[in-house]
Each structure stands twice: as C-alpha cells, then as structure tokens.
Amino acid sequence: MEFRGAFTALSTPFTADGEIDEANFRDFIEWQIEQGIDGLVPCGTTGEAATMSHSEQGRIIKIAVEQAKGRVPVIAGAGSNSTKEAIELTKMAKEAGADAALQITPYYNKPTPGGLVEHFKAIAKEASMPIVLYNVPGRTGLNCLPAHLKAIVDAVPEVVAIKEATGNLSQAAQVIEECGKNFNLMSGDDFTVLPLLAVGGCGVISVTSNIMPAAMSNMCKAFFDKDHEKAIDLSLLMAPVNRAMFLETNPIPVKTSLKMMGIFKEATFRLPIVPLQEENKPKLEAVLKTAGVL
C-alpha cells in the first residue's frame, strides 16, 4: 500500500461540555475531502487521543471510515506504550475498516531496539494490517533510528511506512537508504515537508492541513508533477502558519484556528490541555489572515 500526498492528522471537535461532537466531526471530514486532502488520520496527537477512552477512540475511527466512504485512505491512531493496549486498539481499527494503523513507538518505557521489534511483532501477530510507525522523540523520549527501523521492517512486514517527526533531514534520508525507495517515508513535521519529499518521501501527516488542506495537498502534487516553483510558493505560504500551529502545545493553536474559521463550533479541550492564552490569540489571527485562511 502506498500513502501518497497530504494526510490530515485530524483535530477532534468536542462540545462545550467535552463530549465528542460527531456531527461536527463528520462535516469537518467532508470539508477536508472537498478541499482535496489525500488521506485522513483520526486519533493521533492532534486528535487528543491521549485523553480518550478506548471506546471513544474506536468510535472516532469508525466515524472517519464511514464518512470517508473509501474516497481517501484512513490511517487510524492505535498506538500505546502498553503493547497489550496497542493490540486492542489496532483490533478496533481493523474492525472499523481503517486502511492502516498509526503506531507510536512506546513512550515513557523507553524500550531497547529489541523491545521495539517485539512490540511491533506482537501487534502484527494479533491484528495484522498495514502499520505506519510514528517516530516523535520530542513526545516519546525515544528516537527510532534508521537502523532500528530496518530491523523492525525486516521482522514485521506489516510495517510499511514511517511518520518521521524528528525534523532531521539527514535521518529521514537515511530511512530511504536503509529501507529502500519503495518504503513509505511520511513527514510528521510540517516545517520540513518539501525537503523531505526531495530525499525520497511520499507525503505528510500534517497538522497545518487541518486548516489549509488544499494548500498542503497541492504542494505535494506540485512536487510530484515536477512543478517545483509552485511547490516552493505553497511551502512559503504555509511556513508562517506552520510556526503558528506551535505557538503553544499542539493541538491548542490548530483547534483554536478551526473555531476562528467557523469550522468547529467550539474550541473545547480536555485537561491537561487548556485553551490558547489570550495574548497569543491576536498573533494567531494575524497569521491566519495573512495566509488567507480568515
């Protein structure tokens, strides 16, 4: 399976009292597809999966699959630092009809390279489906180096892609060197999407595409069409937005942006995430206006 282009790490709309707003989520997915997004990723970091129960995660994945109706692939966040929990979540993703499971490297535990191999082997044994390994050392405290990834891919054929969120282009290039040109290297860092494509990447799992799906998708398409000037122009357009999405911890700025745009009815978060600080709202609004989002 090939994952090509821009996939949105979907933000999850909550009602004012903190419940999942299913109707708003369905409308949001429909807007993403209308805007030309290439794929959807529910229940990742941006979707606040860490504050959801397993049943809520299963429901969100099911809604995304139902609403996508096969028009674009769905990569379902199903990872955990507990292998047992990751297996349970992956089974739910598979039953819901997701095209792949996004599996974060176990956080806090800091497993050895051998432990990583056994973690992914156990998941694939119990719930075999395409797996996108998510490497984000800034959140997990563990960096899955290219040699470690190669060992995982050799032992677990289900691992067909990586969401590489180190921002390290040298490491990203080495992924292709180790795993081959047919391995799906996806950016997990909106600041480095275009250069990552240039070293052999196939796309991005993006935060910014929550609010600029057409721009992110069109940038990837322009690169693949060898229209590099257009790709660079779109990259430059999104650069200030990429920075603004990290004015505070993700997903605070992106969900606030979606509320400013009128796409989300509320900008409700679950603790320990809190709303955007008042002094950052004018900064965020100014960037969105300059980018033509507002």
Q: What is the count of distinct domains?
A: 1
**SS class:** alpha/beta
Distance between the termini: 36 Å
Please provide the count of β strands. 8
Number of helices: 12
How does the major sheet shape up? 8 strands, parallel
Looking at the structure, the CATH topology is: TIM Barrel
Function: Catalyzes the condensation of (S)-aspartate-beta-semialdehyde [(S)-ASA] and pyruvate to 4-hydroxy-tetrahydrodipicolinate (HTPA).
Pfam families: DHDPS (PF00701)
Keywords: Amino-acid biosynthesis, Cytoplasm, Diaminopimelate biosynthesis, Lyase, Lysine biosynthesis, Schiff base
Main location: cytoplasm
Q: What would you note in describing this structure?
A:
This protein has 294 residues and is an alpha/beta fold. It has a single domain, classed as TIM Barrel. Helix content is 46%, strand content 12%. The chain contains twelve helices and eight strands. It has helices at 22-34, 54-68, 83-96, 113-126, 137-140, 146-155, 169-179, 193-198, 213-224, 228-244, 252-260, 281-290, and strands at residues 5-9, 39-41, 75-77, 100-104, 131-135, 159-164, 184-187, 203-206. It has an eight-stranded parallel β-sheet. Helix 3 (83-96) links the parallel strand 3 and strand 4 (100-104). Helix 9 (213-224) packs antiparallel against helix 10. The longest helix is centred in the last third of the chain and has 17 residues, at 228-244. The mean pLDDT is 96. InterPro entries: Aldolase_TIM (IPR013785), DapA (IPR005263), DapA-like (IPR002220), Schiff_base-form_aldolases_CS (IPR020624). Pyruvate binds at residues 46, 205.
